[in-house]
Amino acid sequence: MALDTMAVLAEPTRRRICDALRLRESGVAELVAALRMSQPAVSKHLRVLRDAGVVSSRPVAQQRIYRLEPGPFQELDAWLGPYRELWSHSLDRLERHLDNNP
Amino acid sequence: MALDTMAVLAEPTRRRICDALRLRESGVAELVAALRMSQPAVSKHLRVLRDAGVVSSRPVAQQRIYRLEPGPFQELDAWLGPYRELWSHSLDRLERHLDNNP
DNA sequence: CAGTTATATAACCTGTCTGGCATGTTGGCC
DNA sequence: GGCCAACATGCCAGACAGGTTATATAACTG
Known about the structure:
Two copies of one chain form a homodimer. By secondary structure, the first copy, chain A, is mostly helical. Chain A has a single domain, classed as Winged helix-like DNA-binding domain superfamily/Winged helix DNA-binding domain (Arc Repressor Mutant, subunit A, Orthogonal Bundle). Helices cover 66% and strands 12% of the residues of chain A. Chain A contains six helices and two strands. In chain A, strands 1-2 form a two-stranded antiparallel ribbon. The longest helix of chain A is centred in the last third of the chain and has 16 residues, at 85-100. Chain A is elongated and about 55 Å long. Chains A and B meet through α1, α2, α5 and α6 of A and α1, α2, α5 and α6 of B. Chain A binds a DNA duplex through α4.
């Protein structure tokens, strides 16, 4: 469910990791440099992200390359679905208003 | 920013409140009954949601009617934007694959 | 096999968050 | 004005999350 996913993505550091991985997949050291944080802290966040399926890792020599997985983001998108009519209805009203007032 | 909004919406109880308010605006007592939780707990969550702009309240006699506000959900939708190409690209590849293998 | 690189895990501390109970506060009613 | 109803707020206890340092593991390297 998007339930757990939201909690995982709510953490600012983890979102920074996602922002970084959105540009290109990376090893841990690269993320550590980008985030200016201790390596264990980054590894812990990566663990959480991986357990939630937000990222996946593949070993390359001693490195582990992390990349984003689309699934959880799609879930989040789907969860947001019903809430979209909160503002799509407003847009409908705006359109009708403009139609009636040319 | 969507930053704080995500943390606010990550809380399961608060999401249940949002789910309830999505159907219809309600007073606190109604939410208390729906969530089977103590009234102070609900009021506190409503405070957090209101501070984040996720809900707004309007007084009606001694009641306070709460309703959802679209803003934060739009922010979340916007934040999700760049991540959408994670799976839209996959769909592109799938389409090309199907085009090339009729 | 010894040493080094790259990452994961363990132990610990601290701050924050959530829930409950008790107590304010505000608006209507007799 | 006194009382009740509907919420809000303060305070406390328990749980949990995130960071750091120290240590373990895995894979190359000579």
